[in-house]
Design brief:
Elements lengths: L30 E6 L1 H4 L7 H8 L5 E6 L5 H4 L3 H4 L10 E5 L19 H18 L4 E5 L6 H12 L11 H18 L3 E2 L1 H6 L4 H5 L8 H17 L28
Parallel strand pairs: 1-2, 1-3, 3-4, 4-5
Length: about 260
């Protein structure tokens, strides 16, 4: 006879059994991978768009940052087989590709080592996208254009580092960033994948230069918030609404205080 408030002896166990979805032996939480340059690498700093995305998808998906400061698409091609192996872990549920700020560095300036011609930039993005498609035909792939450039902000930042030795000409221009953004958008259209035009979106706001950019290139908390909002909206439109995705394990309200194992069977 079972005592009041206790579980039947036949269901008790030293280690509560857990039955995962689909009868799998191990719960694998889906992943959202953020692949890009320093704007992605810094996205988990306080106020960063990656950290905000991890909060949005808390207990629904793991947000994995693969950001590489200073990288362009040419160098990114050396990474894709390591970050997105075609045999091994389950492929990501979604991936953002956020390159172009370094590809658009101007020749003859301090960042010329990072420069990639715009036609090659587009071709490199295509190679990255095709590799992801080979990894999974269901992965949501989101391209993000390079952000706008505040040239005066870049000059101020250079002076803060080098004083009078700072070069007078900016190593990037907003006009050139816009050219790379247009090629990114064009590729997304050709490959039928979503693209976030962050270059245009940020410039819709008056005073965007200081509001969204900390040094004329990288993002302030407000700039990060814009990227987060656009990424969430794009993922939602692709069917990845956080509120509709299941928890990886039962919500605490579903766990019986006397018989917790029932929630995991």
């Amino acid at each position: 006879m079972t005592a009041p408030g206790s579980c039947p002896a036949t269901t008790a166990a030293a280690d509560p059994p857990v039955c995962h979805a689909g009868g799998s032996q191990e719960m694998v939480r889906p992943r959202l991978v953020l692949f890009g340059d320093s704007i992605t690498e810094q996205s988990f700093r306080p106020g960063g768009w990656g950290a905000a995305l991890a909060d949005t998808y808390s207990r629904k998906a793991d947000v994995v940052v693969r950001g590489y400061g200073g990288y362009n698409t040419r160098w990114a091609l050396f990474l894709i087989h390591h970050i997105f192996p075609q045999d091994g872990l389950a492929p990501p549920l979604a991936t953002t590709i956020f390159f172009g700020a370094n590809d658009a560095a101007l020749l003859g300036r301090t960042g010329e080592r990072q420069h990639v011609p715009v036609s090659e930039y587009k071709d490199n993005l295509k190679k990255i996208v095709n590799h992801l498609k080979d990894c999974s035909n269901s992965m949501v792939i989101v391209l993000i254009t390079p952000p706008p450039i505040d040239e005066e902000g870049r000059e101020r930042f250079a002076r803060s580092l080098y004083g009078e030795n700072a070069r007078k000409l900016p190593e990037r221009t907003n006009e050139m960033a816009g050219v790379y953004a247009s090629y990114c958008i064009e590729l997304a259209r050709e490959m039928h994948i979503p693209c976030i035009n962050i270059w245009s979106k940020m410039q819709e706001t008056e005073g965007w230069q200081k509001l969204y950019l900390s040094d004329g290139l990288h993002l302030t908390p407000e700039g990060n918030a814009v990227v987060h909002k656009e990424v969430v909206e794009t993922l939602r439109n692709a069917g990845l609404k956080a509120e509709d995705m299941p928890y990886d394990f039962p919500h605490h309200s579903k766990i019986d205080g006397c018989c917790p194992e029932k929630a995991f069977q």
